[in-house]
Design brief:
heterodimer, A: 246 residues, mainly beta, Porin, 11-stranded antiparallel sheet, B: 401 residues, alpha/beta, 2-enoyl-CoA Hydratase, Chain A, domain 1, 3-stranded antiparallel sheet
Chain lengths: 246, 401
């Protein structure tokens, strides 16, 4: 499935980008950084159970097409971790499940920036689409079918039920999992030109998903949306020799 | 002058342009938000003031807590579409409507696979309207029969066991009045009869008669001179899960995996944990039992009786004789422990349902079906009336030289 998506996307990317690069109208860069994802959900009333934000990593590239002195249109294809954790507390302390989700995503951004000779600051906004490429679940949960020999006086659930640990790839179910994600992205940009055609940059992006991770297969089902903060740093190679310098 | 005018105009158009750009960026972000998510409500705190609330609490509670949706034939979404409008027409203060509501709930749940499933009402008018789909399913079995009479196993003990034998009665709780029997047959087969599982609690209760019986059982399991054990779990209604280690653990010297279980990992119907191994831990001082084990079961061998049968069946030296069991293999604990299973529908009703689904070591699920015997010996009413036990006789014949 992933190969089926990537192959035409790669061809399309090459057809669109190569001519612009040849003409020297694009800035191109690479970046890497960290992500922090929240799973927004209407889980509701489960006692001693909370969702937690979890960090992850991101890597990708940046393509920018400067429209004029202030406006740049950019695409930032990247690989980003959108992880989260559900943990329990009090008597259930130690029970958790961490979900590591990897997405391949393509944000399209419009950046408004102000700059001088060396520095550039800007704000960006746009939309993104993402494909849920891989998921792994790691957890420790009580095993009701493997009881301990301790007789009562439990202060923690694992004294009653033995601990079951797992760390395995989650196999997607086409009836349950919605692997395409769409949403808005907003962010801040800071760029510093090192030499004539090379700049380093730090970007912050906030991805706000509008699509539920689950397919709509049940009445009143729990919805799950990613909200991801991403901070990246990288290098930008300015092939562009056009409007901005005029 | 003209130059200044041009500069002013250029500045003005630039400013307008920037405002347009900002509007273009900010506006979509403000309008493109998700719809506010309604947090899911705990059905236990529903103020059952009208049948709309009762229905939603019940339907949603089941949708989130029930652990068998992936193997169940009931289409729960269809139940919502059919019965939500029907419940909204009912008045909770009208006794006729309350009876109608119980009837609707029976229709909704009659096909549920979970054989532990019961729906009990707190409303005095509906006290006798409890819904147990598995009992209805049991009565539809072609081999259906009533349970053995209250004195049957006492009479069987008198008839088949060597003298003296042990019997003991003790109530660890109201649900499980214990009546245990142990002795020998032909002086070399250990016979153990449990009507319910609360062995550990009975053992530590200090009841002398019970302690004597259970010590006889545990010593007998270690007795190398015996030919084997007959464990009689017919008409055994289940009980404490901890007895799996305490009793079945007497037969093993190393942990024994006899199946696996899984429960809900989150609120959606198909959110499940991975399958976890179901393991019996050896009891203190136990040895591997290498002699023959025969387990007697019937259609009233329920829950822990079935799990114990399956645990012993995971040993190579066990034969199961009798009838297919009741088919309630799910495991129980409180709703809070695993965020699933039993729950209350406000003050209106109590739903009892398994906290975890169990499957045998060959990956087959016997929930709602029952565990099949190796040797089928059907119930015979005519012989049972005169306390001739064909199933026990078949078990005893396996020990014949």
């Amino acid at each position: 499935m992933l190969i089926n998506v990537c192959r035409p996307a790669g061809v399309l990317f090459f057809l669109l980008v190569a001519p612009l690069l040849m003409k020297g109208q694009l800035n191109i860069g690479i970046n890497g950084g960290i992500s922090r994802n929240s799973l927004i959900s209407n889980r509701g009333y489960r006692p001693f159970t909370t969702g937690e934000k979890i960090g992850g990593y991101t890597a990708g590239m940046i393509l920018q097409y400067p429209v004029n002195k202030f406006i740049t249109i950019g695409a930032e294809p990247s690989f980003v971790g959108k992880n989260y954790r559900i943990a329990r507390s009090d008597y259930y302390q130690g029970v958790y499940e961490t979900t590591y989700n990897n997405y391949i995503q393509l944000p399209i951004l419009l950046t408004f920036s102000l700059s001088n000779e060396r520095m550039l600051g800007g704000i960006s906004a746009g939309g993104y689409s993402a494909y849920w490429a891989h998921s792994r679940k790691k957890g420790e949960i009580p095993n009701l079918s493997n009881l301990s020999l301790q007789d009562g006086d439990y202060t923690n659930v694992f004294q009653n039920m033995q601990r079951f640990s797992y760390d395995a790839t989650y196999h997607f179910n086409s009836k349950l999992d919605n692997r395409w994600e769409f949403g808005w992205v907003a962010g801040l940009d800071f760029q510093y030109t090192l030499v004539k055609r090379i700049a380093c940059f730090i970007n912050a992006r906030y991805y706000y998903s509008l699509t539920d991770q689950g397919k709509d297969y049940s009445v009143n089902q729990q919805q799950r949306f990613n909200e991801t903060m991403v901070v990246t740093a990288g290098l930008l190679f300015k092939t562009n020799r056009s409007k901005k310098n005029k | 002058m003209k130059n200044r005018w041009n500069m002013a105009m250029a500045y003005r158009s630039q400013k307008t342009y920037l405002i347009k750009v900002l509007v273009f960026i900010v506006l979509p972000l403000t309008i493109g938000c998700r719809k506010q998510l309604d947090q899911q409500v705990n059905p236990s705190v529903t103020s059952a003031n009208d049948f709309n609330e009762v229905f939603n609490a019940f339907w949603n509670g089941m949708n989130r807590n029930y652990v068998m949706w992936d193997i169940d034939k009931t289409n729960w979404n269809d139940m919502y579409r059919i019965f939500s409008p029907a419940f909204s027409k009912l008045q909770i203060k009208d006794p006729a409507d309350r009876l109608k509501a119980a009837h609707y709930l029976r229709q909704m749940t009659i096909g549920l696979t979970d054989s532990h499933y019961t729906l009990e009402f707190n409303d005095p008018l509906l006290r006798d309207s409890s819904i147990v789909p598995a009992n209805i399913r049991l009565q539809q079995r072609p081999d259906y029969h009533v349970p053995y009479t209250a004195d049957y196993f006492d009479q069987i003990a008198k008839h088949y066991l060597d003298q003296p034998y042990y019997d003991a009665a003790y109530n660890t709780d109201l649900q499980h009045p214990l009546r245990y029997i142990a002795g020998t047959i032909h002086h070399n087969i250990l016979y153990i009869r449990f009507n319910s599982f609360s062995i550990y609690r009975a053992f530590i209760s200090g009841n002398t008669r019970m302690n004597t019986l259970l010590n006889f059982v545990f010593n007998g399991i270690k007795d190398k001179s015996l030919a084997g054990v007959i464990l009689d779990l017919r008409d055994n209604t289940g009980g404490d899960l901890q007895d799996l280690n305490f009793f079945s653990g007497q037969f093993i010297s190393a942990p024994l995996q006899y199946g696996s279980s899984r429960y809900k990992s989150n609120n959606n119907p198909f959110d499940y944990t991975p399958w976890m191994p179901a393991i019996i831990t050896p009891a203190t001082g136990s040895q591997q039992f290498t002699k023959k084990i025969v387990v007697l079961v019937n259609m009233y061998s329920i829950s822990m009786a079935e799990l114990t049968t399956m645990a012993l069946k995971a040993l190579p030296n066990t034969t199961v004789i009798g009838e297919r069991t009741y088919g309630a293999n799910g495991l129980f604990t409180s709703e809070t422990d695993l965020n699933g299973g039993s729950f209350n529908v406000g003050d209106f009703a109590v739903v009892k349902t398994a906290s975890a689904l169990f499957r045998f070591k060959d990956d087959r699920i016997f929930e709602g079906v029952g565990f099949p015997p190796d040797i089928q010996v059907p119930y015979d009413e005519s012989t049972a009336k005169i306390y001739v036990d064909k199933q026990l006789e078949e078990a005893t014949s396996l020990f014949a030289p």
